[in-house]
Amino acid sequence: MNLESRIAKTQKNPEDLYNFLTKVENFKELMPEDTKFELKGEDKFLFGLKGMPEIALGLKEKTPFSKVVLGSTSDKLAFTLTCNIDEVATGSEAQLNFDGDFNAMMAMMIKGPIKKFLEQLANGIEKI
Q1: What confidence tens digit (pLDDT) does each residue in 85-106 have?
Q2: Residue 128 and residue 13 in contact, taking contact as beta carbons nearer than 8 Å
Q3: In this structure, which of 6, 11, 49, 99 has its CB flanked by the most CB atoms within 10 Å?
Q4: List of long-range contacts for 66-71, beta carbons under 8 Å, 24+ apart
């Protein structure tokens, strides 16, 4: 299952946005207010969305100033969340991509909440 957020625009330059996103504790600022968030180390955090199990994410890959990849630390819900960063005249643009391998029933149940979550993260990026 592949889902994409809209393109979020921010006045931060790509380097500043990249540096913000590679510090996983900063994701708390991007999460919706009613989301449980718990730091689990320097490069991991746990979060819980309403109506879904808690999920642990860890920093998997970094490409300076253009891409940050987080991945699930559980084999039961294997997925990645990639933020692609592009430079524009007014700062930078970021798009979030969710990529997971789920059975049809699971995909149907989580598609809506994940899509909404991606949009909320995009909103958060625009506010930082």
Answers
A1: 999 999 999 999 999 999 999 8
A2: no
A3: 49
A4: 66/14, 66/18, 68/18, 68/21, 68/22, 70/24
The token pair at 73 is 């630390």
Distance CA 73, CA 59 (A): 10
Residue-wise DSSP of 51-94: TS--EEEEEEEEETTTEEEEEES-STT-EEEEEEEEEETTEEEE
Rounded-to-integer distance, Cα 13 and Cα 93, Å: 9
Query: Which pTM value belongs to this model?
Result: 0.92
Question: Any residues with CB less than 8 A from the CB of 36 and at least 6 apart, and which?
Answer: 46, 47, 48, 54
Domain of 48, CATH number, reads: 3.30.530.20
